[in-house]
Amino acid sequence: MVSDRLLIGQGCWCYLPPWPSIRRRHVSWLDFWYPGGAVADSANFEFLAVHDPLLDLLGGQAERYFADDLSTSLIKLRQWGEVLAQGVAVYSGLSLVTGEDFRGLLNRLWEAGPLKGADLARVFHGLRRAGNQAVHEHVGSHRDALHQLKMARKLGVWFHTSVAGESAFKPGPSCRRRIRLRFQGRRTTTPSRPS
Questions:
Q1: Which segments within 77-161 are labelled E, that is strand?
Q2: Domain covering 18-164 assigned CATH 1.10.3470 in the classification
């Protein structure tokens, strides 16, 4: 059996994503991390599962955590952006470099051409920065998270239609209403202090 593991440093292994150029005929690599190949219920990102189920999973988790845990939502969006950037690299014929960080990959994509124009690099860097701030500075607002969710969906539609060649795809409206209803349903009022 051909191994689909990639050494990422000091004995740590990760499983390569199932992009078309490196896909193998065996159990999905998600089964190692999510038994049963669990995929999040995401109406905004489910169309990306044909390219990598992790894009649907991370996008769905970002939506789910939007109401309860903003930092986690922004972190999941950053992870989603990095997986998508790796997909852009593979579809563009660029090799994935072991140990390369998200910023380095985005810079290589800019130099190679896939991210030039249409402010794509700016949107990817926005996801990266928001996720980094959520991790290191514990900052983020619902406004920021909703904006990043919108930007991630736009990137996903761009990837699916332009990079992956699904030009006949019609994305339809995003499901912002569903996300807002989840948030409003969990919003609680702050109890007043006794006098």
A1: none
A2: no
Summarised one tens digit per residue, pLDDT across range 126-144 is: 999 999 999 999 888 889 9
Nearest CA to 6 out of 77, 74, 90 is that of 90
User: Using CA atoms, how far apart are residues 126 and 149, in angstroms rounded to an integer?
Assistant: 11
Report domain extents, the chain: 18-164
CA distance 24 to 4: 8
Q: Cα separation of 11 and 13, whole Å?
A: 6
Query: SS3 for 47?
Result: helix
Q: Specify the amino acid at residue 163.
A: V
Q: What is the pLDDT of residues 104-119, one digit of tens each?
A: 999 999 998 888 776 8
- Using DSSP's 3-state secondary structure scheme, residue 114 falls into coil
Q: Which two tokens stand for residue 104?
A: 């380095």
Q: How far is CA 69 from the centre of its chain?
A: 17
Structure tokens at 141: 């607002």
